[in-house]
């Protein structure tokens, strides 16, 4: 009919052809860990190259990206074990992601402060600037990785229908 628009199937990805809601993308842990390592490694390396900081280029591949990958692995494993009826699967996504980000950052800060205090006592690391970087690298990387992993895990859960 003239004047009527037809809905194209490629415009409405939220439903399948039989009008049932499409399943959200699956949470695949190895992909989350790979992205958690690669993204900060590339960005911090680019920052180290742009500013001429050789220690930042080294930290990009070790403490920054390594911490992100480790935290994404641990948080992702924890989330995969949760049931769909758990408090984490029901709470608001921003609050949940913020809670995991702050919690992981606090733990990483404690580890970073302890390592920055203890590692310079090792003779080979006594003059290295590397232990001092741990105070910033670990909590920042942990917060970003935990927040992103939690948010992506929650997005992979099926949405519940609200009671009307």
Describe the protein.
By secondary structure, the chain is mainly alpha-helical. Helix 1 runs antiparallel to helix 2. The two termini are 35 Å apart.
Descriptive key words:
mainly alpha, elongated
End-to-end Cα distance, whole Å, is 35 Å
Mean pLDDT: 84
The gyration radius over C-alpha positions equals 21 Å
What profile does the largest beta sheet have? none
Portion of residues in beta strands equals under 5%
- How does the helix and strand content classify structurally? mainly alpha
Count the beta strands.
Answer: 0
List the helices and strands and how they pair.
Elements (H helix, E strand, L loop, with lengths): L28 H23 L2 H27 L6 H4 L2 H26 L11 H26 L9
Helix pairs in contact: 1-2, 2-5, 4-5
How would you briefly describe this protein structure?
The chain is mainly alpha-helical.
């Amino acid at each position: 009919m003239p004047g009527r628009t037809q809905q194209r199937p490629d415009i409405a990805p939220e439903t399948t052809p039989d009008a049932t809601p499409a399943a959200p993308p699956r949470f695949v842990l190895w992909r989350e860990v790979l992205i958690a390592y690669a993204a900060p490694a590339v960005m911090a390396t680019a920052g180290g190259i742009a500013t001429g900081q050789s220690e930042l280029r080294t930290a990009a591949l070790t403490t920054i990206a390594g911490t992100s990958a480790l935290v994404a692995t641990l948080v992702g494993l924890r989330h995969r074990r949760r049931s769909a009826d758990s408090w984490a699967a029901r709470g608001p996504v921003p609050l949940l992601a913020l809670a995991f980000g702050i919690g992981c950052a606090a733990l990483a800060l404690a580890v970073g402060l302890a390592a920055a205090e203890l590692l310079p006592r090792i003779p080979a690391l006594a003059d290295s600037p590397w232990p001092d970087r741990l105070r910033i690298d670990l909590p920042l990387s942990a917060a970003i990785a935990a927040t992103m992993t939690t948010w992506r895990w929650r997005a992979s859960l099926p949405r519940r229908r609200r009671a009307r």
